[in-house]
């Protein structure tokens, strides 16, 4: 745009525990509402009420939705924009896109919350200028969004990076806490896993405590695998665990050259610090991402 | 094209042990020459001589090159089309694209041999109609090409799927044979690994011998990981080991539902048989892929 008024965009970040609805002057957040994610009807109803209010003040140009998954992201599928089978009670089969479409005639974009966050960091944050980008969130769960040539990866479903099985550290017998897979990476290093695994609450444990060693190695195994498969220029790591325990990222960075063993070319500390970083947009990566989805829906 | 003459295309499949040069009526191979891959000068010289001969008979419209890697595939890089550091003697830094460019003014496409094979199966073979495609070759080495939305994945380098570290089967102590990583997946299930690991030569070992069990499980771990990260609609598996030991793919398919544990939705035997399959083009996937690269270079 060359001057003039930015688009009036709105976004919904539908998270597993809370939902954030934002109004954007373009992709700049100018107003925000937050509420707990409860039942689908109640939660989508609350989001629609906020959008309706903003739309009455001045018509919205487009709406973006970044949702927790698993979510049908194939626009050709009959159940596009629907939550797939999930252990989250009441949400299997919940329609996310359809109620917004019924209420608003403007363009509407929808993708996973982590793809939205990746788009935000790509457009405005730590991954600007990078085509292949991974956004990881390590919090209550572990999820990953992936952009290749700047576009979100979908496919048969969408990546479920949190549930990969990785090589375990020799001698580490922690069984993991994932109800599906036990010791997949989410079952090893997301919040509930750390509470079960560490000798003290993560917040109370000294960052140099050796109990962190296998946690850092597990994260390094994930990063090595992602580097070998997606060939990313940037891996942005957000989420509560990553924000509160930045030493884990440092530990993983230190272990990576040993794991990659010279195979991917230059892999010195400076290159790894550039490649693996925190989100510039912080906790706003998700909500800003929903505005980026809105902007992209306008074509 | 609606009638008329197809493009006169040529392709080079530069393999680790042999090189195949093909002439295409469009992407249909009408002539082929094969010779061993020796030094860069000798090998590229032989390929250029064949191309020159065909070009004199009638001008080539475009040329495609599918090369073993690691290869610089970033068209913006100064060393685009150059082999990167490789244990293959004499080939580190070898220019693949430059000598062809010097000799021919027509459009020239270049990518990895496995991305080329993936493009061929996508255009003409087992992955038609699928956006997200993985082409694995399991032979002397293990390599993978990846298409997302039909386009090859590049990024910081390109995927190096053969060198991921996966969860080992409990009790399996085989150390692996990869000179970089020991028991990465190439070090566990490519040809040289099987010769070191099995109690008899792979060709002489009964397909039902339990010594194959951990090999099939290792392949299943790779496929599970690829499904969770790339969300492919199709995984096409070629290469000498896969061709000669189809029971390995059957074993891996059988193990997958247990590994994925219901996480990716429908994963019954019929769905897995469709998703994981042999290349329709067989050993021609690579050479045909070089012709697809040529066609795409014409824009």
UniProtKB/TrEMBL annotation, chains A, B:
Keywords of this entry: Magnesium, Metal-binding, Zinc
Organism superkingdom: Bacteria
Keyword Zinc: yes
One MF term in the entry's GO annotations: fructokinase activity
Reaction catalyzed: D-fructose + ATP = D-fructose 6-phosphate + ADP + H(+)
EC number: 2.7.1.4
Cofactor: Mg(2+)
Top EC group: transferase
Protein name stated in the entry: fructokinase
Source organism: Croceicoccus ponticola
């Amino acid at each position: 745009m060359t001057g003039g008024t930015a688009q009036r965009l709105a976004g919904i970040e539908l998270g597993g525990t809370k939902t954030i609805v934002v109004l954007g002057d373009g992709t700049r957040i100018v107003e925000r509402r937050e509420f707990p994610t409860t039942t689908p009807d109640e939660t989508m109803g609350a989001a629609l009420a906020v959008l309706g209010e903003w739309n009455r003040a001045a018509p919205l140009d487009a709406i973006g939705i970044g949702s927790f998954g698993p979510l049908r992201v194939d626009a050709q599928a009959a159940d596009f924009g629907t939550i797939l089978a999930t252990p989250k009670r009441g949400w299997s089969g919940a329609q996310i896109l359809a109620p917004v479409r019924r209420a608003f005639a403007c363009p509407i974009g929808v993708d996973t919350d982590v793809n939205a966050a990746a788009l935000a960091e790509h457009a405005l944050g730590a991954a600007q200028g990078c085509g292949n980008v991974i956004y990881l969130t390590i919090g209550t769960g572990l999820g990953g969004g992936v952009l290749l040539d700047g576009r979100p990866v979908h496919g048969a479903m969408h990546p479920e990076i949190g549930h990969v099985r990785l090589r375990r550290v020799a001698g580490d017998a922690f069984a993991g806490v994932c109800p599906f897979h036990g010791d997949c990476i989410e079952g090893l290093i997301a919040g509930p896993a750390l509470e079960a695994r560490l000798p003290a609450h993560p917040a109370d444990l000294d960052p140099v405590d050796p109990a962190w060693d296998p946690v850092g190695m597990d994260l390094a195994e994930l990063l090595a695998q992602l580097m070998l498969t997606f060939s990313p220029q940037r891996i942005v790591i957000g989420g509560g665990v990553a924000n509160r325990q930045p030493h884990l990222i440092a530990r993983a960075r230190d272990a990576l050259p040993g794991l990659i063993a010279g195979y991917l070319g230059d892999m010195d500390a400076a290159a790894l610090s550039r490649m693996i970083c925190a989100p510039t947009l912080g906790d706003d990566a998700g909500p800003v991402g929903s505005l980026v989805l809105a902007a992209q829906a306008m074509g």
